[in-house]
Design goal:
This protein has about 450 residues and is of the alpha+beta class. It contains 10 helices and 23 strands.
Length: about 450
């Protein structure tokens, strides 16, 4: 990937990811937690498989092209000769002189604490490192060098309102990175990746050598196809993780050697947990993986090791060799785009049904992305990790009826609710249909 393109990705995502799957941290709505769609539409992806369930969605040529793009993008952080993000851009949040937000409960960040973080970040010496590295344990990508959260309001229970605005994303084990900068206490690295840029706990990273990179890139990639696969006593991997294959049901995992540099360790995993990449992209295979995600709790930016909307689509497409960016709006540009602008809700449904490819098409709006999986009783059905449906309760406030999990719904979830904000569902805000990998059939 060209240096300028990687820099553009980092700059855009380090700002855009703050929006993620919701424009702001919503007020938690304490009302009913379900909507009619959850009863009216089977919560099982197998219910939407047609007669072509085992027919490949991508041709062999399309699958090969997609995988080549995936691998090129994944390893892009190892292809640049020096950090491409400037000191100014890497310091956008660190240079804020006034503390902002709450830590936990009613405790606010203080200016003194903020200044201590700024001092520890030591951005005056940025970049003080320039070395390729790898993630040795699934980890958080942070906006500041701290594990302490930043909420926009008092948050006694983060699991009820999971919006830590220091959280950019989760980086999976095996993710290539460029180590750009080390904090003064040597506990945090500022890194560039093919997803975004930010701060990572130094314990979860290791520098790599040229021979390591050559071996890693030349090996057959293996896609983890089950959730919470045990790698060793302290590490797990889930769908969306890619590791080199070392044999049947065996993968290579990065480990820190005695000197801190990355080494390799062969690990046997449970039978059927890993498959050569790319998997055949059939509706049945996508359903097999997606059903494991159904019902899982929502997690902004990977909080608590969970997923948000764009992480769900990204991880689900990874085993099939489809590269998706981290942000929902960037994902809308990851295939052939069909505009839904200016259409009524019914017209959008008809367009998605006629031009979308089930199990291979995204539908996006500002701050949210879903996967179109087919039709049920004449209505298009979407798989998505959704925080909630906008309602006015009490009147005039921006609240949510909280779903907070991965569900299957129509494109108009909650349309039966009398308190819908403006009387509108999300269908009014969908703006793009994106067909992944190939072209609409």
């Amino acid at each position: 990937m060209p240096k300028t393109l990687l820099r553009h990705i980092c700059l855009v995502l380090c700002l855009a990811l703050l929006w993620g799957c919701a424009a702001k941290a919503p007020v938690v709505y304490k009302g009913r937690q379900d909507i009619a769609d959850l009863e009216n539409f089977p919560q099982d992806l197998n219910a939407y498989l047609g007669s072509d369930a085992n027919t490949p969605i991508l041709s062999p040529a399309e699958a090969a092209d997609a995988l080549a793009k995936y691998r090129s993008t994944l390893y892009s952080a190892w292809s640049i000769s020096k950090p491409s993000v400037s000191r100014k851009d890497a310091s956008l949040m660190v240079n804020r002189k006034t503390a902002k937000g709450w830590k936990n409960g009613s405790a606010k960040w203080t200016n003194r604490e903020w200044q201590a973080m700024r001092k520890n970040a030591n951005m005056a010496s940025y970049p003080n490192v320039n070395r390729p590295g790898i993630v040795v344990r699934t980890t958080d990508l942070r906006e500041m060098p701290t594990h302490t959260p930043r909420f926009t309001k008092p948050t006694p229970n983060p699991r009820e309102d999971p919006f830590d605005y220091f959280q950019y994303s989760t980086l999976p084990i095996g993710m290539p990175v460029l180590l750009c900068h080390l904090s003064k206490d040597k506990r945090w690295y500022y890194v560039e990746t093919s997803l975004a840029c930010g701060w990572v706990d130094a314990r979860d990273l290791a520098p790599v050598s040229e021979p390591f990179m050559a071996m890693w890139k030349s090996a057959t990639p293996g896609a983890i196809v089950r959730e919470n696969v045990q790698l060793d006593a302290g590490r797990t991997a889930s769908i969306g993780v890619v590791l080199p294959l070392a044999g049947t049901d065996t993968v290579l995992v990065p480990v820190k050697g005695p000197g801190g540099e990355a080494g390799l360790e062969g690990v046997a995993v449970a039978p059927g947990s890993v498959e050569p990449m790319p998997l055949r992209m059939t509706p049945a295979n996508v359903a097999r993986l997606g059903n494991q995600m159904l019902g899982q709790q929502y997690g902004w930016g990977g909080m608590f090791g969970l997923r948000d909307c764009s992480a769900m689509t990204r991880d689900l497409m990874t085993p099939f060799g489809i590269w998706l960016p981290r942000n929902s709006q960037a994902q809308a540009k990851a295939g052939e785009r069909i505009s839904l602008q200016g259409m009524s809700g019914r017209e959008k449904e008809l367009t998605v049904r006629s031009k979308g490819v089930p199990f291979a098409s995204l539908v996006t709006m500002k701050g949210h992305v879903v996967l179109y999986v087919g039709a049920y009783r004449g209505r298009p059905v979407i798989l998505h990790d959704i925080w909630g449906v906008r309602v006015d309760e009490p009147a005039g406030e921006d609240n949510r009826l909280i779903l907070g999990r991965v569900v299957l719904t129509s494109m108009m979830p909650g349309r039966e609710l009398p308190t819908l904000t403006g009387g509108k569902t999300i269908v009014e805000r969908f703006h793009t249909l994106t067909v992944l990998g190939g072209t609409p059939r």
